Amino acid sequence: MADEKAWREFDDDISMMLENTLKGTSKRKLEVMGDLIYDFGKVRFGTVESRQQRPEPTPNRRQKEISRLRKELRALKHQWNKAGPEEKPGLAQLREQARTKLMSLRRAESQRKKRKKREQSRRSFFMNPHHFTKKLFEQSKSGELSVPQEELEDHLKETYSDQQRQVPMPNITGLVTPT
Q1: Backbone angle region of 49, left / alpha / beta, with phi > 0 → left and psi within -120 to 50 → alpha
Q2: What is the pLDDT, as a whole number, of residue 1?
Q3: Which positions ≥6 away from 17 have C-beta within 8 Å?
Q4: Which of 95-104, 132-141, 153-162 reaches the highest mean pLDDT?
Q5: pLDDT for residue 124
Q6: Among the listed residues 134, 76, 70, the one whose alpha carbon sits nearest the alpha carbon of residue 102
Q7: Would you call 94 helix, strand, or coil by DSSP?
């Protein structure tokens, strides 16, 4: 693709083709020109295959179980709302069992994610310690500057400039001068 001669030939050929093909209104020319240049370039140089995107990760066994328990809890809640007074204690017990199981699964999943994040941090540190520490201590930038540049420059000039910079300082008694 970096071959300059091939690109010059392409430019000359496409210019000639466009002069011959594009006759008519400017609207028609604009509609046809992009497609024509693309197709001609595709035939001449080919296309670059894009990388395939990763498929979405499938949930692991624990995540599937968590989603199943959430659905079960929702169904138990609806049953509890519709149930009579004699059925409610049993449904409440079932809900409590499902909640405890859900809490333990979520805790285990959270620990797994923390372990994975810790391992990635460790790997990143050993690959490039300088970059890792720089990224660690760098403050994240947030917000948007909504002040005009002139106003900002005026403020900085007023705040940080010294009007009497050219005036020499008087001698101060008791001040040690560097040697």
Answers
A1: beta
A2: 47
A3: 36, 40
A4: 95-104
A5: 93
A6: 70
A7: helix
Give residue 24's region: left, alpha or beta (phi > 0; psi -120 to 50).
left
Q: Which residue has the tokens 């002069």?
A: 19
The model's pLDDT over 126-138, given as tens digits with 9 standing for 90+, comes to: 999 999 998 888 8
Cβ within 8 Å of residue 179, ≥6 positions away:
none
- Cβ atoms of 80 and 92 within 8 Å: the answer is yes
Asked if 7 contacts 37 with a C-beta cutoff of 8 angstroms, the reply is no
Please give the sequence-ordered ranges of beta strands (E in DSSP) within 28-163, or none if there are none. Answer: none
Residues 6+ apart with CB under 8 A from 106: 66
Tokens of 28: 């028609």
Instruction: Say what the pLDDT of residue 2 is.
Output: 59
